[in-house]
Specification:
The protein has 66 residues and is an alpha+beta fold. The chain contains two helices and five strands.
Amino acid sequence: MYLKITRHAKEKMVVLGISLGDVRKAIAYGSKTKQTDGLLACYTYYCIAYKVIGEKVYKIKTAYLR
């Protein structure tokens, strides 16, 4: 799984204490909701907005707490 993380998402992850492992878990195991441009995966206490841009390539757009 390759993650292409936007600057905005990196900043949000640092502030909220969400690791790369957490992002991977959300994509793999989280409940997913379709959005206008991508998907929203929610897992435990956080959500990750992302877009699939290739086979096992994900563009992480933002992260936030539930």
